[in-house]
Every structure is written in C-alpha cells, then in structure tokens.
Protein 1
Amino acid sequence: MCKNNSQYDKYPATSIENGTLIKGWENILNQITPVTDTHIVAIECYTGIYYEQLISYFRNIPHALFVDTAQLFKAESEILRITENFMKEDILFGYLSNLSIWDYFDEEKIIAIHQEIKSAQKNGNIILFGYGSSYVIEPDTLVYADMPRWEIQQRMRKNEVTGLGVDNKNEAFSLQYKRGYFNDWRVLDKHKRTLYQHIDYWLDTTGKEPKLIDKKTFFEGIEKTAHKPFRVVPFFDPAPWGGQWMKEVCNLDKSVSNFGWCFDCVPEENSLLLEIDGETFEMPSVNLVYLKSKELLGEPVEARFGQDFPIRFDILDTMGGGNLSLQVHPTTQFARDRFGLPYTQDESYYMIDVKEDANVYLGLKKGIDRNAMIDDIENANKDPKLNFDDEKYIHTIPAKKHDHFLIPAGTIHCSGKNSVVLEISATPNLFTFKLWDWSRLGLDGKPRPINIEKGKQVIQWNRDTDYVTSQLVNRFKEIARGEGWAEEKTGLHQTQFIETRRHIFTGPVPHMTNDSVNVLNLVEGDEIIVESPDGRFEPLIVHYAETFIVPASVKEYTIRPHGKSASRKCVTIKASVRF
C-alpha cells in the first residue's frame, strides 16, 4: 500500500490563462441578458439538471415571451411508445437508440409557437428554455447547461431528476440509468454535437454555486487539453464486495462502509475540470472526445471507433471485502445483435496490490459438464439454502502483485477478496452478465440482477485450465531496454484490440503515442513526472494509482521518477489501441 496516502489528486484540472468565469445567478443573468429588446435567447440543457429550479432563474430575464420547450414535446405516453423498442429488454439492458431530439416535438405545437414568437418579438425579448430550444427557433444568444453523467447518476439515486420527456424519477435507479444510457444520452449527445460552434456560454450547475464561461474560454480549455497529458476527475462508489484500500490511498471518506470502484478513466461519465483564476468549471469530459477525437484518439483510432473513447481504466478494491460476482461479458456478435453495440467489453485484471490469500477466478476447469454447471448455478440462485460449488467448475489462480490476467469476452471470471485490481477494458461499461453473486444482497438490501440466460449463450467453453494457463496469465515479454528502464509487452489477448505495455524504471523513459491515445496508471512508486522532450506541454505530475491520458497528438513524451520517488523504482502500465 502507498505509504503517503494523501497524494492522490481527486480534482485534477486544466489551467486556463485569461479565461472568463462568472459566478452566481445574479451575475450570470446580467451577463446573458440582452442589451436590446428584440433578442432571442435559448438555454439548451442536458438531462440531470434541476430543471424547475433553473427555469425559475431564467424567467427573471426581461421578456415578452418565455417558452418552456418541455411543453412543446409530444405527450409522455407517445414518448414512452417511441422509445419502447430501446427499453424493452429487461431491468438492465436495452438497445442503443437512433432517435433524434426532433422526434420528441409535437409538430402542431411547433407551428403554434412560431406564430406566438412572431407576434411577441416586436414587444420584447424571447426566452426559450429546455431540451432542443435552439431547434425550435434559431437564437441570437445560445447558452448550454451541461451535466456530467456521474452527477446525473447521483441525482437519479436520490430521485431528484427526470428523463427526457418522461417523469421517471421515482423508478428504480437501474431503470433510470437504463433509459439514460440507451436512449436519453444518445439523443442529447447527437443534438449537442451539432451545437458546439454555436454555443455562446456554458453553464455549470453541478455545485452549490452556478458558474458560466464564454465560448472562448471553453474552446481554449478543450484545445489545451487535447494537446497535453491530462487526467479526468475520478469518482468512487461503494459496492457489496467493496474494500478499504482506496480509503487510505485515495484519501476518501472513512465514514463510508467501503469503496469498491474508482472510475478514473471513463470519459463518457467522468468530468473534466478547467481552472480559471483559482475557480474550477466542471463539464463532461466527453465534450473533449466529441470535439477533438482525431487529436485525442489518433486518426487510425478515430477511423475505427469514431467519436468513442475505446479504453477504460478503473480500480476494483476488495481489500477486506469479498469476491466480485462470477460473471462473463458478451461476445461481439451477441453485443451487436442484442444491444446495438459495435464492440464488446474485453478486459484484463492488473494486480496493483494483494494479500497472501488473494486469487482470481478465470476460466473453467478441464472436462467439466457444462449442462451440470448451468443447472447448479440456476439452482443455487433459486434456492438461498443451496451454494454453487465454484471449486468444482471454475479455475482459480493465486494472485500476486503485478500479475496480469487477460479476459477476452466470453471468459468466466471475477477477482477474489483481498486484492486491488486495475481493470483495463474496452469502453462499453454496462454489459456484464452476472452468473453467481455468492448468495449476498446488494447495498440496497435486494438481490442483484443475475443473467444466467444471457450468460450461458456467450460462455466460451474452451477457455479451460489449459487455455487459461497458456494464453491468459502473465504473458510477459521484454521488448526494449535502455539506461534505467525496461519495457515489457503484457498483452492483451490476440482477440482483443487493446495493447498493454509495462515499464519498470529508475530513470527517464522515452514514450511514443504511435498514432493512438495512451492511457497509463502508476502501479508502483510514489510520484512520476510526464514531460515533453521539446517543451510543447506543461509537465504533469502523477501520483501512485492515478490514471492519466496522453492524447495521440502529443506524439513524444518522457516519464521519470519524481519527488520522493526520484531515482527509485517505479512501474507504469500503458494501454493503447492495437492496429
């Protein structure tokens, strides 16, 4: 465990010089209030904002007509009908939506509001607030109230926010998240991508005090971040199996029972912070992916994945906790057919820390009866008095620090208790089929969803002891060496598109992005510094267990031990896209 557990930076930010940031509702409204009396102001928004609260503030702008675009939507019953095909799979899974924001509007209401706007405009300002407000009519000033997905999830759990065109805030969190993931966020992201060049101001309402930045500041932050190593804002969550390690290493709230997850590189859900005159502005990090996909991902990666960030890093903590659920991820074809996904969640476990009794469940024992195994899993899940005999069916491996276990889709797996795993995976982050959860309940006191029916359709039964031992465990190969450093290839499996490299070093290590985004974590050592050989970007200091992203546009960079780690052994693991 890290000796200095207070170094972990939970709020990394890109510093912006000469930016404009305005705080407080009074100042914000003064900034965007038109100087003329015939102005059209539109305030677009993302789900997860406190809709009614925000609309009450914007009504204070002098106006002849105020339009709440939610009132222009089709009836909720109609929206439920048109989204039904994307929601109907089960409590967790749906199908990726192809709807657009204009599918939500009632055409007759749009025609009527155009007449109202035409009549009222000569009498004063027109203010439009809500989803798709700039679609209703082209504004003179456009404001966007954005919201990161992690904050949306926190508000969903508290039953504080509604979905797009539906009042679902009192539904179970899993159903709210499902609607957001499969439909609402897809629709709003599609719309937002058409607006970036037209938005005059960005509004951050994630904290207690609202903040506003202008277009110039926003794009300066995006441009700077796309050409330097950076970190997104990590977020942490308890789990039924969660441990105690991250509390110390990441300096987390000791009063929380446990922390199981640290999501420190999931750009779809993480935030990006801009620091302006000592103040931070929070926005979804996916804005960077949408605007700078070529610079961030690299042209070959963008050509393959579009504006999707394809690599995810997160930390799983079971120190003093329990086993993860026994699970399997869908094969690519299954994910495509059932969920509309272009690729699936291949992954690997890199062991950051372990106790002596740590182990990993990976693959099947040789010669097992597959039908008997499925029957035993189904019976154990139906009857709380029964227990699934994992020792009979599942291959188990003692785990040591710095082991690397490869987990191509279709491989049964889970991490055991008393370990800290760096999970390196492809981005789809919802598609886990739980087979067995060790007869425990979720944090809400209810059984967690089990997906045996889906899971048994994707299990690769040839992934047995021989296969796992020969192809999925510690596939290390030294490929380069220099003064004070060595580079090893550690995977991933030939069916996986992610390449991983481990560097062990006491001095400076040269790195190349090789036309792919690089994602790295410091898995041993207190502190390193990431530098440009020619000074193109500001140095980035990285602490133990922190994940950082190096855009493809950086091309060359060096990493060396720094601070307390100067001249001492450090280890990084790096992931990129294999061509």
Note: The chain has a mean pLDDT of 95.
Protein 2
Amino acid sequence: MTWATHDPEEGLVFVPLGGVGEIGMNLYAYGCDGQWLVVDCGILFHDDGAPGVEYLMADPSFLAERRDAVCGLILTHAHEDHIGAVAHLWPYLDCPIYASPFTMAMLEGKLKETGIDPPRTIVPLGGAVSCGPFDVRFVALTHSIPEPAALAISTPYGTLVHSGDWKLDPDPVLGEPAQEEVLRQLGDAGVLAVIGDSTNAQVPGHSGSEATVRTALAREIAARTGRIAVGCFASNAARVESIARAARDAGREVCLLGRSLHRVVEACETAGCPLDLGPLVSETDAGYLPNDRILFIATGSQGEPRAALARISANTHPNVSLGEGDTVIFSSRVIPGNERAVLDVQNRLADLGVEILTAREAPDIHVSGHPAQDELTHLYGLLRPRMLVTMHGESLHLEAHAKIAQSVGIQKVIVPFNGVVVRLAPGTPEKIGTVPSGRLALDGNRLLDRDSEILRNRRRIMYNGCVVVTLVVDGKGELPKPPCIAAPGLLDEAEKGFIADLAIDAAVDAVSQLPTKNRRQDETLQEAVRRAVRRVMHAQTGKKPVTYVQIVRI
C-alpha cells in the first residue's frame, strides 16, 4: 500500500510509528484534515541486534516532514516507554507538550539533561486542551504510576478514546480510582473508536489491586530477620510507599538505592502528591544498623547492569552488600526480553547465599498495571465504541485483544502495524496505506538508524570478529616490510602466530600477483588483500570476519 491512491492529509487517520507489535517505543499520530496530534514518545530498552546501544526509539521522519502541521505532543503518563524519547525526538516535532503534573515533573529532568526547552503546559487529570482540530480531555485511570490518563479526543469526525496504559484498580493506594462515570458519559455521547492497550489481553480475570500487594508485602517483610532489599519499578510510586510502610511496621529503617527512585520521590513532591515514606536513611548510614533493622528499596528489578541490585549481586556496590540470611524480594514482573538479565542477577544473589522471593513463590507481591480480560470487557461496556484499533502489545496480545472486542459486539476491529495508516473517518474504517517507519538507536550521544552501516558492521564484528591488516607500500608498489595483522575478538594468543602468519603470507601473495600499476591504486590493493586474508581466516576459524586493510605509503 502506498499513497498513490489515498491522500494522507484528508479525513481522520491513525498512524502508529512505534508501540504496535512490541511493548515499548510508543509513538502514535492522529491526523485530521492535514493537522497532526502526537501521543507519547517513548523508548525500547531491549534489542539483542544492536550491541552497545543504550536504547531504541521510533523514527519520527514522517512527522518531521510535517512539523509545521503538528499541533502538539500529549503524554499519557510518565513511564519511560512513553516519555523516554521526548528529549531526543522533540526537535523533529517542534510543538507544544502537554502532560499531567507528575508526568511533566518526570520529564523536566530529561529536558534539562539535553538542554532543550520546548513550550509545555501542565494539564491536571480531568482537564482539557485544544490542539488545532483536536479537543483533548485527560480522563483519570489507574496504572502502576501516578496520574495515568486516557485521552478523549474530540474531532469533527467523532470522538476517539486513546487508552494509554491503564487498569481498573478498585482500591488504589495512591491517587483516585478511575473516572468510570466520565467514561460512561463518553459512551452515552458516542465513541467512534477506542485505540487500546493490549498488553494483558491474554490474561483472564482481573489484574488485581495494589492494596492486595501492600498487605502481601507487609506479611513477607515481617516474616524475615536479616537484611531485606525489595526490587521494584522506581516509577511505581504506590509500590514504593507500600514497601516503606511495611518496613516501618516491621521496625525497619528505609534506604533508597538508585537515582531513579529519588527522582520519582522528588517528582511526587513537585506534583503535589508526596509519598508517605517517613524518614529515610542514607546509603552510608545504613551499614551501621542491625541486619533486622534495615530495608533497602532498590532499582534493578529488570536486571539493568548499572542498577543497584545488579551491583549488589556482583559485589560492586560501594555501600551495600548482602549475604547469608538476607532476602531480596522482586516485587515486579519481568518485561519480555529481560528474562536472561534478571535470571543472571538472581543467580548471582543466590551464589551469595541470599534468599530470593519472586511472584512465582508469592503471587500477591505483584500485580500488573495493565487490564486483564474482565477489565477490557468492562471498559467496552462503558464506552460502547463503534470500532477498536489495538495497540501496545506484541502480535499475540493484539490478536487476543481483537477477539475480546469482537466477543462484546464491537462492529469493526483493526489490528495495525507500525507505519500503517488507518482511516477512521469518513467512510469505511480500513488500512489505506503506509508511511516511512523504523527505529533510531541512541549510541552514546548520537542517534543512528537502527539499520545503519555502523550498527550492521558492529553486529557482524560481534558474531564474526574483526581483522585489521596494515600494509606499508613504497613508491614502486613493493612491501619493504611484512604486513601487520590484528584480529581482536577472533584469535587467542595460541592461534595468533600460526594463523596470523598464514594471513600475512596470503596478503603478500595477493600484492605480488597484482600488476605494478594496480598496486598504486589503494582501492584495488585493499580489496585484493582483504579477500585473501578473509579466505585464510574463514578456512582456519570457520568465521568470515569483518576485514579492513590500511595502506601506509612511503
């Protein structure tokens, strides 16, 4: 599908550039008669095929070409997969940013780090903002972070509800319950389409309440005598408060490990929803307390290598160590793709003699922040949309969500993919074309195309190694000294002599077989030597290394 027969600037369309077919990297665009509203701008942490990359984000090229028509960027909540790319991608959009108080407070630090200063407006939950042809109301829901908002987007063609990440927690321990009456009113007035979270569409029943977790954590913490560390998502402010309360009830002092935890606590204070953590103990003072009087709330529940739990497990944390008689509680789920990293941390902790407690052993120490099947059904009973467009999930999640929608009588269900353009109105809702989409990688302090030559070569080097051949060539095209061979990541010390000598002989033969005039042409000489050396390496190691030839002419 292309734009040969369809005009992307007419009518009401939905264009996901990231966040469909994957969990993370959310970037969605709504077009209305040539003007565009962007929702969320997040990152994706895990990608085995991009070694050395910090994280990935959606390619905004399609929107950058239309930046004069972008009315605004609205952020549904403060999770990294929804706001983590703003500081990097906002220059491509160059538009006002709208977010709730807590979400904006979390964003401010990221903006300061990069030095950009976009126009931004704080919108309280229940508030509204107008962006071109879009009138957007922030509807409060519940999630595993403060102030999650669904967006009721009114357009000349009808009302859309973009769910964001959500659940229906009947007893949230932080913030207010979901505004179900507002959702019902939207349904009464008529909802053209829901663009909805699919993460837990395969999970039967209800996602559970944070109040249940608070009770379970109090039980587990009270039952232990040694030092305790609890790993959780730093952004789950309600969970952090529950852990701190359980610690105090058990007669323990609380110490926060990880900068992101301190940032969340500060953001809650800034947003006017301070956490009830009680007095906190510093990392340096925590070591002076008896083992049964201290509890650490730690980052690193996803196995992040620089986070507190990973450093403790590797005995490299400057202030905290754990061992026999101590317990680490993982009050979190493992995000798909992080399984190996989390298991590595847990295994290292077990080697230290630490007891590990996860949701496998105590299921009620964690509940998901995303809706299970009963909540999805309930939402659609409130909104009664004519159409569902699935988002936020891998393919299995999207398809399961589609089946739920069909089972409750939603007339039209569309399962999109990143880069597709979905016509919502007027006329028959359908996929009508595609736009450029892809991934950008943050590599150090620069953005690269995920499929750039730099990263392709890095992947090849990771799997096949690298060989560097240095030739010294005189004015007659002769070699006054033998070539030098370096093969990092390919040859060990025992192999370097024999195999390197074979490669050097092959390089010398390749040069000698070239006519003198060709030896004076760098590209011809490089290619001949490259092929010869690579053949030797493949024959001796079974690998086809990335091979570079440097020529020094004297």
Note: Residues 266 and 366 are 24 Å apart (CA to CA).
